[in-house]
Amino acid sequence: EAQVTQNPRYLITVTGKKLTVTCSQNMNHEYMSWYRQDPGLGLRQIYYSMNVEVTDKGDVPEGYKVSRKEKRNFPLILESPSPNQTSLYFCASSLNGGLSQETQYFGPGTRLLVL
Amino acid sequence: GENVEQHPSTLSVQEGDSAVIKCTYSDSASNYFPWYKQELGKRPQLIIDIRSNVGEKKDQRIAVTLNKTAKHFSLHITETQPEDSAVYFCAASSMNTGFQKLVFGTGTRLLVSP
Question: N or C: which end of chain A has fewer CB within 10 A?
């Protein structure tokens, strides 16, 4: 089954404790992206990746890192989480982001609470 | 960069009524406009999309219209049903950056009452 998966689905942590949220897709998509969803703000892009070893900042990259060492995986890293990073996070992928007219498929989401 | 505004933020209708959600965008180079539906606790899922070379697209009870001159697009749901209750997001994809950057609206919470 074609899908985007994320782990963990729920996470409670404390300020400053490094964490990683994994994202994996099995559709051989080149483009992957991370969003955060906050009430009243919609979905905002954190980072995106056009292909292996090609990543760039989105609209709200502060406090986050990503890597793309393999095509299928795009982990989101919070080196020193802070309470303002409490949010619902979605990973998404599309076949070839460069075409600019493609459906993005979303993962199930990761709800993060930083105390 | 692109900016997408979405209205209303909440919409309550009676079952069987029509619902209309409107979005405006700022970047005239945007050429792809998807709509996503997000049910409570679930991921956003594409329900319909429209490309800039088309003015209207319909899929059963849902339709999307695009006015490129005015830079706005709308989602129309007819004969609403309780299962249409969800948060709906519009988005615009700009082309001039060389890759697909979807900018989302802030969402509309639709409540359909039986």
Answer: N
Q: Are the CB atoms for B55 and B66 separated by under 8 Å?
A: yes
Give the mean model confidence (pLDDT) for residues B14-42. 94
Q: Tell me how far apart the terminal alpha carbons of chain A are, to the nearest angstrom.
A: 36
Q: What is the pLDDT of residues A1-12, one digit of tens each?
A: 779 999 999 999
**Strand duo A31-38 + A54-57: pairing:** unpaired
Query: From the list A43, A90, A99, which residue is nearest B100 (CB)?
Result: A99
Query: Are B99 and A48 an interchain contact pair (Cβ–Cβ within 8 Å)?
Result: yes
In this structure, are residues A88 and A10 in contact, taking their beta carbons and an 8 Å threshold?
no
- Residues in chain B closer than 8 A to A43 (CB atoms): 44, 89, 91, 104
What token pair was written down for A112?
A: 């993060």
Contact A44 B31 (CB under 8 A): no
pLDDT in tens, A11-26: 999 999 999 999 999 9
Question: What would the mean pLDDT of A35-41 be, rounded to a whole number?
Answer: 93
Tell me how far apart the alpha carbons of residues A33 and A60 are, in angstroms, rounded to a whole number. Answer: 12
Test A102 with B100 for CB contact under 8 angstroms. yes
How many angstroms from the chain centroid is the CA of residue A6? 9
Query: Which percentage of chain B shows pLDDT scores above 90?
Result: 78
Q: Which of B109, B112, B90, B89 shows the shortest CA–CA distance to B40?
A: B109
